[in-house]
Automatic annotation (TrEMBL):
Residues 75-102, 130-164 form a coiled coil. It comes from Lynx canadensis. It is found in: Secreted. Its main location: secreted. This is Fibroleukin.
């Protein structure tokens, strides 16, 4: 390029020279004098030339200096600048190429494992990538949700396990205490038979024995139905209970009694928790105490009922356990036997087994639209709502309206329609428990 430019420049100079030569020829005659001084160009024949014939002529040019316009002086500068610009362009071009190469390298799937689309498809590719990311985020958030649910389930399991372990430990301690009691009793027996001071020892009150329930009092010979102090769980304080020492051999710890309506059974959660009433008349022993009694030993449940016609029937369940307050005093009952009918397992839809305790102020029932305890005026292991309710209101005769009296759904004729819509009630009700393996 450089050479070509110089050639161009030279051509231009020669052309200018040619123009000047022509111009000089045209003005020779007019400006002869001037021409002689300013531009001594001579035209002369070469050698001798005869007249009438064509003679050769020659032009002699003196050394020529052409005054070019000032701008021409900058041509070289311009060429230099052009040259510089060209170099700059070349270097920019090169660095651009390097840059592109680098960009290509970074898109190389072999380097980062990601296949990027060509620049032409970038818009669409970006959209796709955004969609991909969006679906990934959605997936992650749903995973997170699942994980949270799993954690909740596991937490529930953990709580259950803790509870089971606690119960196991408590049972273990209880059994150890029972063994120790047995050893102490036998030692006491040995001592009293060998010691000379027999009378003194025998007269000493036996305070170290733990009576867990009424069957223990029966075992040591107590035969009168009375209140006794029991300690079903050595870690908890002892309390009074009423013992039935007559029914079916005796040894029963009574947890509920209805006789005459002297005690109101429409009570709060707290009342049912600690118990209320008079142990010798009408009462609810208390859910905490019932829990302690039923967790210490395998218990059976007996329910005795008597209507106003003097009919007495009973129901027996070969297992009875009431969970702690944390588990809302959930009821666990075994198989039925007896004469009053299995009202606690009345049907698939009315089943009190495995139900939580509900009171008018604490709704744990399976009736979604309301509180069965409030509607039926009692605390009970309501389903949705009931086929039995031994804590209902005490009616001294037949009653009308809501069936909120003492109720046992399998009682003969109890659900039959009576004239005037009257409902029958019970004169007496009693609930009591005894260790399953107790032999009176
Ligand atoms: Ca409810």
């Amino acid at each position: 390029m450089k050479l070509a430019n110089w050639w161009g420049l030279s051509s231009a100079v020669l052309a200018a020279y040619g123009v000047l030569v022509v111009a000089n020829n045209e003005t020779e005659e007019v400006k002869d004098e001037m021409a002689k001084d300013a531009c001594p160009v001579r035209l002369e024949s070469r050698g001798k030339c005869e007249e009438g014939s064509e003679c050769p002529y020659q032009v002699s040019l003196p050394p020529l200096t052409i005054q070019l316009p000032k701008q021409f002086g900058r041509i070289e500068e311009v060429f230099k600048e052009v040259q510089n610009l060209k170099e700059m362009v070349n270097s920019l071009k090169k660095s651009c190429q390097d840059c592109k190469l680098q960009a290509d390298d970074s898109r190389d799937p072999g380097r980062n494992g990601r296949l990027l689309p060509s620049p032409g498809a970038l818009g669409e590719a970006d959209d796709n990538r955004v969609r991909e990311l969006e679906s990934e985020v959605n997936k992650l958030s749903s995973d997170l949700k699942n994980a949270k649910e799993e954690i909740d389930v596991l937490q529930g399991r953990l709580e259950k396990l803790n509870l089971v372990n606690m119960n196991n430990i408590e049972n273990y301690v209880d059994s150890k205490v029972a063994n120790l009691t047995f050893v102490v009793n036998s030692l006491d027996g040995k001592c009293s038979s060998k010691c000379p001071n027999q009378e003194e020892i025998q007269s000493r009150p036996v305070q170290h024995l733990i009576y867990k329930d009424c069957s223990d009092y029966y075992t040591i010979g107590k035969r009168s139905s009375e209140t006794y102090r029991v300690t079903p769980d050595p870690k908890n304080s002892s309390f009074e209970v009423y013992c039935d020492m007559e029914t079916m051999g005796g040894g029963w710890t009574v947890l509920q009694a209805r006789l005459d309506g002297s005690t109101n059974f429409t009570r709060t959660w707290q009342d049912y928790k600690v118990g209320f009433g008079n142990l010798r008349r009408e009462f609810w022993l208390g859910n905490d105490k019932i829990h302690l009694l039923t967790k210490s030993k395998e218990m059976i449940l007996r329910i005795d009922l008597e209507d106003f016609n003097g009919v007495k029937l009973y129901a027996l369940y070969d297992q009875f356990y009431v969970a702690n307050e944390f588990l809302k005093y959930r009821l666990h009952i075994g198989n039925y036997n007896g004469t009053a009918g299995d009202a606690l397992h009345f049907s698939k839809h009315y089943n009190h087994d495995l139900k939580y305790f509900t009171t008018p102020d604490r709704d744990n029932d399976r009736y979604p639209s309301g509180n069965c305890g409030l509607y039926y005026s009692s605390g009970w292991w309501f389903d949705a709502c009931l086929s039995a309710n031994l804590n209902g209101k005490y009616y001294h005769q037949k009653y009308r309206g809501v069936r909120n009296g003492i109720f046992w759904g399998t009682w003969p004729g109890i659900t039959e329609a009576h004239p005037g819509g009257y409902k029958s009630s019970f004169k007496e009700a009693k609930m009591m428990m005894r260790p399953k393996h107790f032999k009176p």
